[in-house]
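User: I'm curious whether this sequence folds into something compact or stays loose and floppy. Could you predict its structure so I can see for myself?
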Amino acid sequence: MYSRTCIEQKENVKERLIMRLLEPIKVGKIELKNRVMFPPMTTGYEGRDGTIVEQSFNFYKRLAEGGVSYIVLGDVAPVNTISPTPKLFHDGQIEAFRKLADAVHEFDCKLGIQIFHPEYDVEALAELFRKGDMEGGRAKMRHDMVHFIQEVTEEQLNSILDKIGECVKRAQSAGVDIIEVHGDRLIGSFCSTLINRRTDSYGGSFENRIRFALRVVDKIREVRKEYPDVSVVCYVNSTAEIKAESDVCVTSSNALKIVKNLPNKDIFFIPDENLGRFVASQLPEKHFIFNDGFCHVHKSIHKEELQKAKEAHPEALVLTHPECTGDILELSDFIGSTSQIIDYATKSENNTFIICTEMGVFYELHQKNPEKKFYSVGHRQFCPNMKMVRLEGVKEALETMQPAVNLDEEMRQKAALPLEKMLKLAAR
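Assistant: Here's the prediction. I'll summarize afterward.
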């Protein structure tokens, strides 16, 4: 009887522990759906330059799909080391990390990177191997593994700190959620009383031995304080080159929804400042960085003209595109994209409207609402670029598939990613 009771109690404890494992948890500002994580192990699945390639991508995606709530990429170097670990030492690697971050985020999984720097002179060693001096390289590594902590200069340490800071910026741009610091290797060696025999401000006392570790943390905090988790949001009618440097695209109709669904607090909104400021006004919980850009048609609609139009038609409701300036938005009864303006006017019981957007919208408004009256603000509501699109030209392009826009395949793939992310976020 006693034995059976013990077994039952043991099984109950086991069951509670399993259930506990599957409960959500909040660590700082990060919320995890459960307590299952993949620790910072090195897999060797990355490319020779440390880039996240297909094998590495598929491995981590499977973990996220399987229910892991937090994945940490181990030994992510901010420099081009000879070790087979992930690396993030130049901007060309950002896109692969961003693709991985987007993939695991689909399964409500957070992505972290563990930043480390080896305890040897990376640049000097790399130079020896580039020259083909394998014997010299091996000798240098054996020497450095023992003596680097004693010999590294403060100038070199400052350079390493700067490289770590740049690595953090790239990680943030890629959508990485968490930054970890590897407490071993270079940092751990400085902290060790056995390895660190320095007599300057980085050696001797406990305070001196941990100084470099604290400087690493301070550098990361400095970077994250500037833009803790910035996401670049790009208007869809931008060039492929601009899209390639962005995290997600938006339209005027879905911008608010897309930005709201982004986990990032810091938003760099390009290129239209007015649309960005409108979105920002609806999302006070986020921090916006604006680009000095605008739509020339919407910016040409001036407050004085709108006031005159309102005086001429006091019964009219003002329907405005969010790319207009703030003073125009303040005088408006409704703010929305072209399609949203059409829908609002069609459903409204009001019969008179002042339209603050490009004149092309008037055709659809009249088609759907022949009994209603629509007024412009002034003569400037005209886009010559839009008027270059003609039915004859569209027909010819479809028939001949000319003129063609040709993109480098790498550029095409980069530019496609923020569009794909827009569609995913818009579907939520």
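Summary: The chain is about 50% helix and 15% strand. The first strand starts at residue 25 and ends at 27.
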